[in-house]
Every structure is written in structure tokens, then in C-alpha cells.
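C-alpha cells please, single chain.
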Amino acid sequence: MPVYLILMNGALILDPRRQPILVKEVSRQTKEHFLRKYPKTNLEFITQAGTLTRLSRDAYIREYSAWDMWKKKVLDKKESGYYERFMARITFDCTEEEILASPVLKINGLELKSEPYAQMLEELEGALTDAVNAPFADHVIEVTDQEASKARSLLWLCDYLGWNKEETAVFGDGGNDVEMLRVFPHSYAPADACEAAREAALEILPPNREYAVVEKIRELFI
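Here you go.
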């Protein structure tokens, strides 16, 4: 569709021709922190072209298959071809040098074990000097440059297109949507969103399983 896309928690904006018009890369310092502090953690270093990981293909599938959301969204879609397309974007067994040399926009991490994840979060709070962790849920990390967020990128796009935020409606359900829901006056969260998103939104919609967001968009624009 000929639309602008805000991706990777605001680290990348693509125009309708899918050309980048805003790019915020993670610094080398931040990449080094994760590579050397957590060498065995299942981290994804995401670029515009694809995903880099130090895990082997088998280890990646084993780690992420334990996550129910990934299993439903990716692993269970082998018949549709989505699984193959998803996996084709991942480069496995990457070296530290390959990742440091790559234009990483976002670092994702999944840690199902509560104790090491809690320790990682505590360490990140004081370690990230030029980056921010804004995960959609409590059991993951999503790290971008400190200047990247959905709210900041959408404000930038509004200015780029000559819109004002009073003309813009936003929808969100996770932790990485909270700032955006607070900044924009027309903000909506479904009833099954996280608590912080519900508190930040102007209006609470019915649960997402009832197609609440789609129905609200229809109401606003028809």
C-alpha cells in the first residue's frame, strides 16, 4: 500500500516507495555492550536488510519455539510460506565483528527465565548511555537509539508532511506505545492492552479480538 511506515520502535521511517527518510542506528558502544556482556543470550541485531544473530539456526529455532507468540506467528505458518520468508531474513552464526560493522537499528532479546532477565534489566538501566529499552512486554528487550521512539518518529513525520498532532489518531497496546499514546490527544488502546497503555490512552476500546481497532478506524474515517 502507498503509505509511510514507522518501523523498529521508530528507528526507521520508509516513504511510500519504501525508501528510508529517517534512520536512527544503534551506536557501536551499545552493540559492544550486548555482544560482550551477554555472549550467549538469544539476541537479534536488526538492520533494514535483515536480522543478525550469533545463534546457530537450530539454536535459534529451539530458543524461540519455546515462546508461544513466536510459535503461533512464525513456526505454525510453514504451509503459508511465511516461515521460510521470515527465516530467510536471518543471518545465523554471525561474528562479533560482522555485527559491529552492520547498521543495526534495533536489538531484540527474549529471555524467558525470569531471574537472568531481571538481572539484565537492572544492568541495562545504568549501562545504556545513548540507547533506550522500550519493550512491548515484560519478558523481552527492545533497544534502540535514545532518540528513536514511536512518539518522536510520528511527530517527525507529522512535521515532514505538514500535519499537526490534533489531526492524528494513534492506537497501541504495549509498553513501547505508551509515550505515543500520551503525546497524541486522539489515542486509543484495546481493553486487552497492557495496563500502562490503557492508562495513557484517551479512550479504551473493546478487546482486540473483537476487531476493536479496525472498527474505531472505520468510525473515525467513514
